[in-house]
Amino acid sequence: MNSEIENSKGVDQRISMVTGEPKKAIRVLAIPMIISMFLIMAYNLADSIWVAGLGPNALAALGFINPLFMIVIGLGNGLGAGATSLIARCIGAKNKEGADNAAMHSLILTIVVSAVITVILLLFLKEILLLMGAGVTIDLAMEYGQIVFGGLIFFIFSNVASGILRAEGDVNRPMYAIAATTVLNIILDPIFIYYFGWGVSGAAWATILSSSLSCVVLFYWLLLKRDTYVSFSREDFKASWNVIKNILMVALPASIESLVMSILGVILNLMLVVTGGAEAVAVYTAGWRVVMMAMIPPIGIGTAAITVGGAAYGARNYKNLSTALSYSAKLGVGIAVVTGLLSYVFAGNIATIFTYSPESAFMAPSIAAFLQVMFLFYLTVPLGITASSIFQGMGKGFTSLILTVLREVVFVAFFSYLFAFTLGFGSPGVWWGIVVGGGLGCVVAYIWATIYVRRLKRNY
């Protein structure tokens, strides 16, 4: 009885926090999210670091798989964002039944989407990789990709389950699940890759086995322990196309955003292959892992903004919505200045992490140069992430998608081609295209979101 009362108090506190003062809510939600995402990146970084010891072709093979893997992660993130947004809006509107139904529909969509995408990827993986320019790395890329994509449901379920918990302000338990997964992956990687001699397939098996652990833990918390705000009961479930539509209005655009960024990754890889071969792709693959580490704080803050913004929008509290937008952007930029400076100053030291073996040592100067160019990219990223997150929180997923397409396809692809080929900068031109195009796109997105929220406040 006492444990039930304590659980009830904990749920009430989380809901009050989500619907209360937005600055505090964003800080409270963002910190575990940032830690979780650092753990996820450490998880991915472990693969790159250990695989780098196999040589540049093995690392480049991961580089060709990465855009496709990001589509998978994007599907999970999209469904998770759709669940978070709708559940948070229901919480803001004090609609418990609606929140429960949204959570149930999210899990059903997870199963259906996972089954369909797994079949498609496994059937056409080789053809897709060849179109991406995998070339001499095709066998290694297939070896890794077939295993990872065979266990795709683990990645999608983890993201959706975490999204459900985040919607009600519970960000600690997803963090614990990710921590356990990361530690297991880091332990298994060297054992499977080198001790068992499985090479890149060993890295893939380590990823799958560790990801399944996260799913087991999250399944227990949501469906067996039953101490969450949302409940999963057959009696409360009401099949509704409207609920599915509301989830997909955020999930589909968010997933397509990841697809757009993956397509951009393919385009950039092709540009790098033309300008510098597999070595240029390997440099970009290693360097981009570090860039993603630096982007974790603004992404974590943006994820928190989906919950806080969604609850504020559901309650029609547009003042809190405006505060969530401006505060998230300021906090993200402030942190980006610090992480960007650290990355710039210690670029050479960071590069050695990926070039510890004789086969990859020659890439160190290029990786360091890439990281120093990316310093400017960090400063504008929080603006774009915050804008997209606020639109997703409001259920305006397609607006977020438009902004992403504008940034990635129109700006980044255009400037990368301009600098790499038209101006003849080669591979570094691709790097500068990311900086200039990404920066312009992020600024435009933030201005758009600011104007939209101000109109809501003025018209309410």
From TrEMBL:
Gene Ontology terms, MF aspect: antiporter activity; xenobiotic transmembrane transporter activity
CDD domains: MATE_MJ0709_like
Membrane topology field: Multi-pass membrane protein
Record keywords, A-Z: Cell membrane, Membrane, Transmembrane, Transmembrane helix, Transport
GO cellular component, one term: plasma membrane
Annotated PANTHER family: MULTIDRUG RESISTANCE PROTEIN NORM-RELATED (PTHR43549:SF2), MULTIDRUG RESISTANCE PROTEIN YPNP-RELATED (PTHR43549)
Segments traversing the membrane: 25-46, 58-81, 102-124, 144-165, 177-197, 203-223, 243-270, 290-315, 327-347, 367-391, 398-419, 431-453
Main location: membrane
Cellular localization per UniProt: Cell membrane
NCBIfam families: matE
Alphabetical list of InterPro entries matching this protein: MATE_fam, MdtK-like, Membrane_Transporter-Flippase
Keyword check for GTP-binding: no
Name under which the protein is recorded: MATE efflux family protein
Higher taxonomy: Archaea, Methanobacteriati, Methanobacteriota, Methanomada group, Methanobacteria
